Amino acid sequence: HESLARIRRGLEAGEFVLLYQPKVNMRTGLLNGLEALIRWHHPEQGELEPASFLPVLEDHPLSVALGEWVIESALERMGRWKRDGFDVPVSVNISARHLQSPDFMARLQSMLMAHPELGPGSLELEVLETSALESMSQVSRIVEECAGIGVSFALDDFGTGYSSLAYLKRLPAARLKVDQLFVRNMLEDPDDLAILEAILGLAHAFRREVIAEGVESVRHGKLLLQLGCELGQGYGISRPLAGDAVPLWAAAWS
Ligand code: G
Ligand code: G
Ligand code: MN
Ligand code: NA
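Above: inputs. Below: predicted complex with manganese (II) ion.
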């Protein structure tokens, strides 16, 4: 694992980049949005995945600085795309620590105000279901405040926490991202398929938009459509792409 000091230097030296993975409506074929995923272009170690540096940041203030870099980079990229006539919402992953930092709302608002070209609904925040559960009342207040400034939420890795009717009622998050664990094995494992069906039933009962992660093949997509899940993300649709490659991918896809 990399040290905190090395991560801080990497941030200052511009060694981090965002890749963007498409989310599509599998019924209509329309591009629904993009998820920003961080990578570290480490000069000595090559491209590092988040698992090799995000855990080091956990509960450290530097995770807020990195989180702000992610949001600002995604907004800047959206602004460039929009000037080129490519206007698609982007979701960024946000840590529980960052979400609950004292001046989160004010700082988010000022980042958005630096991009008046982007309309409301351009930015979505993905928060892990498990971390939302740990601080339910604070997170649900932030989710409501964000709705007021046009920023929506998704519960990430949904199904890995203690999904219950009671807490979904309290957490007005717009959409649910079904964890890829249940999606990836749905074709082979009847238990995972049963869990997936139950999650989709829960989402629909609460009239929540639901998106499946880990759509690794056309067969996954077809079965998901049969189960009433239209939105998907996964290697079977596209791997995460460099920002410059996204508009070309979208043109070829549609
Ligand atoms: O892209 P990849 O599969 O390597 O991502 C692994 C994990 O890292 C995922 O759970 C993802 O949510 C998380 N992750 C990716 N990018 C970011 C980011 O910019 N911020 C945070 N907090 N997590 C991220
Ligand atoms: O934030 P989240 O935990 O959803 O992170 C998504 C991660 O899953 C990304 O790092 C991305 O690289 C990875 N991923 C996206 N699609 C697929 C897929 O179809 N299969 C697998 N195994 N991983 C995927
Ligand atoms: Mn995510
Ligand atoms: Na996820």
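The two ends are 40 Å apart (CA to CA).
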